[in-house]
Every structure is written in C-alpha cells, then in structure tokens.
Amino acid sequence: MSTKARNIVDDSPLTKFHMKLTIFTAGGPFLDGYILSIVAMALIPLNQSFEINGLWNGLLGSSALIGIFIGGIIFGYLTDRVGRESMYRLDLIAFLVLSILQIFATNVEQLFIIRVLLGIAIGADYPIATSLLTEFAPKKYRGKMIGFLTISWYLGATVAYFAGYFLLNLGPDAWKWMLGSSAIPTIIVILMRLNTPESPRWLLSKGQKEKALRIMKNIYGESTTLEDIPSGPVQKPSLMKLFSPAYRKRTIFVMLFWNFQLIPMFAIYTFAPTLLETFNLNKGDLSHIGSALISFMFLIGCTVSMFFIDRIGRRSLCIGGFFFTTIALLGLGLAPEASSWIIVGLFFMYAFFAGAPAILEWAYPNELFPTEIRGTAVGFATTVTRIGASVGTFGLPIALATFGVGPTMLIAAGLNVIGLLVSVFMAPETKNLSLEEASQDEASKMDEKEDVSNY
Questions:
Q1: Which entry of 34, 72, 74, 134 is 20 to 30 Å from 65 by CA?
Q2: pTM over the 0.85 mark
C-alpha cells in the first residue's frame, strides 16, 4: 500500500503570500468582467454615434467572447508549454494597449476587430492566472482562493455598470470613455503582478528542479526540500490527453456544466438594460440602475458561495445553484407581465443563485486535471464555453424580436435544466483533496484501490 507523501503546498496554512497572490491574480478576472460588461452600457451611446443595426449590436456584444474563443485554446496550451509566470504580465500589456485603441476607433468595424483582439487577451488570462493560483493554493483554502477570482470578475462587471452609468452623460462620444476606461485598472494590475514567482509544480513538471526548490525555499522556508511536493515524470502538454479514457468524462462534464451556466448568464449580463426595458422597466434610468443592482446581486451570490465551497463541497453547490436559477428563469418566462417588483425580484434571485455554479467555473477545470495539462484544460473549456456564450449573446436580441421576452426566458430556463441534470449525474466532489488527488486519473485511482484491498 502506498503511503501518503507530505505536501507542503497543499498542507500549508494561509499566509500573506497566498493572500497577496490571490489579490494580484484576481486583478485579471476583475479586468475581464469590466471589459466584457462595459460594452452593455457603451452600446447605448454607440447607437447614437454609428446608428448600429441589430446585427452589429449582436456582433459588438459578443466580439470579446469571439476573441476569448481564440485566446483560450491557444494560450491555454502555451501556458503549459512555456510557463505561467512570464505570460502572467504580458497578456495585461495587451489589455492596456487595446483598451486605449478603442478610443480611436472611427467605425463599428474597427471597434469590432479591437474588441476581438481584446477578447484574445482575456482568453489568455483565464488559464494563466487560474493555473498559477491553483498550484500555490493550500487544499483547505483552494476553493475560496479560486472562488475569489470569480467574485473579482463580478466585481469588475459591477464597477463597469456603475462607471458606465456615470459616464453616460458625456454625450454621443461617451462610449469612447466607457470602453477606454479599462486602461486605468489595467495599469494598476500590471504593477501589482510584478515579481510574481513561477509555479514550482509547473517547474517540476518540466524537470527544472533547482529553480523549483529555490522558489519553494523562498516561500516556505529554507528547510523545504523537493520531497515536500509530489511530482510525477516530466510530460509534455497535449490537447488530445483531455480526450483520453483517463480524462474524457471530466472534459465532457466541465464543458457541459460551464456552457449551460454561461449561455443564459452572459446573455442576461450583456443585455441587462435591454431586457429590463423589454419587461417595461424603462421609466427614467430604471433599466440602467436595475442592471447595476442585478450585477451587484451576482457579486453577492458569488461571495456567499465562496464561503460555502469548502464547507458543503463543490457538487452540492453546483446542483443547488442550477436548481434555484431554473426556478427564477421559469418565473420570468411564465409571468412576463408581473409587477416590476416581482420581475426585479426574480432577476435578483437568478443573479444570486447563479453565483453557486459560477464560483465553480475555474475551480473544477483547475482541480480535475494534472499540472502538465491544467492550462490546456482551462483554455479548452474556456474556448468551448465561449462558443455557447457567443451564441447566447448574439441570439438574445434575435430571440426577443422573434419570440418575445416570455418564451426567451423559458428557453434560458430549459438550458439551466440541462445544466442541473449534468450536475446531478456527473459532478464530482474534490473538497479536502490535495491537488494531486483531485486530478488523479481514473486508472490510477483504480490501481490504488486494488493496492489497498490486496494489503
């Protein structure tokens, strides 16, 4: 029977290093949420400047998602290939340059191209930042640390809605300052991420033992040795490994649960003001204020879920979240003529409980796959789910025009029902497992069980 090795990373207490790394890493998701959400407010003055039709409304709303589709799969693989630390800052430089370039766009086509490129940079940050943080996180706090990245995304989105609301009064060119405003937090995050160390787990997966030991001693003390962190043989990253018998079921689960959570959520997030106006909440600035408050409720839901992820576990959180969001969407679909208080209340309910599966978007793919393909797995899942999110975002205005708001919300509820069924039948539990245990392939688990029974 194999004995359990000491693991200084997984069994470490929460230190100042972990807290700083979590905050610095969370800067990326904050920018992602800000950049992806500010366009919802910018579309209003953009329509005044360029007289955008429904097609371009959908394309601009989903432009960054199209970019994430490209960036996720390419940079997820590169993250496993060349490392986490070097790309951890480079992608933010792209954020900065492209944020500023949006101000100088002279037509809708230019703006679309810039935002697609911006989406590529965002897609790169998902596997880079989440993999790096996961590989430093102690198992007792891993769920909360990764969950904080999701909270940061929603915080960025919430700030974007409020910033957009206050910039809305700058006239027809307000969209330039809305979209370009992301340059300010980007500079702050670039400065915060300076001097971040490389992941020792990644270095060991590449056979760079001396550098890994040097970083570990610097973080965990001079008495640290390579025996304090489990490492397997040096392996190359491979996209096809995600579909091998050992990891195929996990890959399918991550793609499905993430997609069916993300499709309705992104559509609602991107077109929240439009949706609220469709529900006749269009008096004064009510639709914009309501959008900001719904975004804030998403943030509250994620925060509450973060405190439960390491208590009740990932599986229960996933199932419960899908159950209650389905009820909220069904209510919106079946009673679109209800009072404004009921409509807003149902949107609040959806936003709050959407935080449960949302908090798992980065936790599951980072925990279920080993170091050599962790970035690849996150990047691939990001790419596949952004196809769904792009379809949802592009399709929402069309669905509203074709079917009306009630049937559109029922379609969203149907997608959530599929997510609920996927969670019930496929969601694993990784609570209290080391990163090596959580990402262990099925064949190795069976071998261990046989070893124990033989013993």
A1: 134
A2: no
